[in-house]
């Protein structure tokens, strides 16, 4: 991981990288294109693209620190800047509609730009919005692909054994069907096992576009997927040592893939959308759960308030016996302090999310 380059991530990022979809890009000469720069649609994809590309390609994240990549709206001419750079890594999902629009324009107007969709090939692993997680069946043989003896097998073969349907009865793709993308929960990057597939997709896309550095991309991806395999095991160890299967998060439901992978419940009074209104009944139900489960620590979204002091957190603390809070991050963005510390995806998982789950689930 190139911490020097990471420390130079544009603080505003928006200065060089804001943008809406531009017009025709045909006036850019393909002969001038050299794949030594690129953009990724949000923090995690940027971190993975940087790690895979090493010194060969300098990637930028257009989303400024403290902002989430989904729901973000660029300004200026980001499409043109990405075309000049030569590569774009994104997720083809409506929650990143600005990135979808840019990818469509690049593919239509400028065929020398490398456009990599991180969701490619993941139809059989995608969850529908509102997918119900079974937190009670975690008995050491959870179908996730872990070896029963040493836990080293991550199941990284495209078949994760989840075998679930969507909430409304729609197939999630595990039997060869495909999702309507508008019904898909996009937060796939939070699952360290699925993350390995996305990293491989990035490496393959870069290798196809830049064969001279293909070996570098493959080696870097292999090394990083080993790190992700280790991260997967760390989560497994936390859940295996947990005395509680349920925790409470004061934010919208971004963590379904993580819950599905490891078999715990992260209850939230909010729905899947940040714009969804939370009712007093939902807050009351959450308070009842906190007290019934003896939960002392409430998880919060540090992108709303870095210190956790926002209204939903205060309402739960004031109405329940809980006394403490801890942050947990959805990793679609980064905070300035984390960026300055050189924390990428793996570091934020290890420094923020793992300690939070260890605390709220009473893991030994």
TrEMBL record:
One BP annotation, GO: metal ion transport
Entry protein name: Periplasmic solute binding protein
Biased composition annotated in UniProt, kind: Basic and acidic residues: 131-182
Organism: Natrinema versiforme JCM 10478
Gene3D superfamilies xref list: Nitrogenase molybdenum iron protein domain
Family label: Belongs to the bacterial solute-binding protein 9 family.
Region annotation (Disordered) ranges: 130-185
Keywords: Signal, Transport
GO MF terms held by the record: metal ion binding
């Amino acid at each position: 991981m190139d911490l020097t380059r990471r420390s130079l991530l544009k603080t505003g990022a928006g200065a060089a990288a804001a943008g809406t979809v531009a017009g025709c890009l045909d006036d850019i000469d393909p002969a001038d294109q050299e794949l030594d720069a690129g953009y990724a649609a949000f923090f995690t994809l940027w971190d993975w693209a940087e790690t895979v590309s090493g010194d060969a390609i300098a990637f930028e994240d257009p989303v400024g620190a403290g902002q989430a990549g989904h729901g973000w709206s660029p300004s200026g001419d980001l499409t043109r800047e990405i075309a000049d750079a030569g590569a774009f890594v994104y997720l083809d999902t409506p929650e990143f509609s600005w990135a979808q629009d840019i990818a469509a324009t690049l593919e239509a107007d400028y065929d020398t730009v490398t456009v990599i969709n991180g969701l490619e090939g993941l139809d059989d692993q995608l969850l529908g919005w509102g997918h119900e997680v079974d937190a009670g069946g975690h008995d050491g043989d959870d179908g996730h692909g872990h070896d029963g003896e040493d836990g080293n097998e991550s199941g990284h073969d495209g078949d994760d054994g989840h075998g679930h349907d969507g909430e409304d009865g729609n197939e999630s793709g595990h039997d060869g069907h495909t999702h309507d993308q508008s019904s898909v929960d996009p937060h796939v990057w939070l699952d360290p096992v699925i993350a390995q597939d996305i990293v491989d997709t990035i490496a393959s896309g870069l290798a196809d576009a830049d064969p001279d550095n293909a070996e570098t991309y493959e080696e870097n991806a292999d090394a990083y997927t080993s790190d992700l395999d280790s991260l997967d095991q760390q989560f497994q160890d936390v859940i295996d040592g947990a005395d509680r299967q349920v925790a409470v998060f004061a934010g919208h439901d971004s963590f379904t893939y993580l819950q599905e992978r490891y078999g715990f419940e992260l209850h939230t009074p909010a729905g899947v959308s940040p714009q969804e209104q939370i009712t007093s009944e939902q807050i009351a139900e959450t308070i009842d759960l906190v007290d019934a489960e003896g939960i002392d620590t409430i998880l919060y979204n540090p992108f709303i308030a870095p210190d956790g002091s926002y209204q939903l957190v205060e309402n739960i603390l004031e109405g329940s016996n809980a006394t403490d809070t801890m942050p947990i991050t959805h990793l679609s963005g980064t905070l300035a302090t984390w960026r300055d510390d050189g924390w990428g995806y793996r570091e934020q998982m290890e420094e923020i999310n793992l300690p939070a789950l260890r605390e709220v689930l009473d893991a030994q």
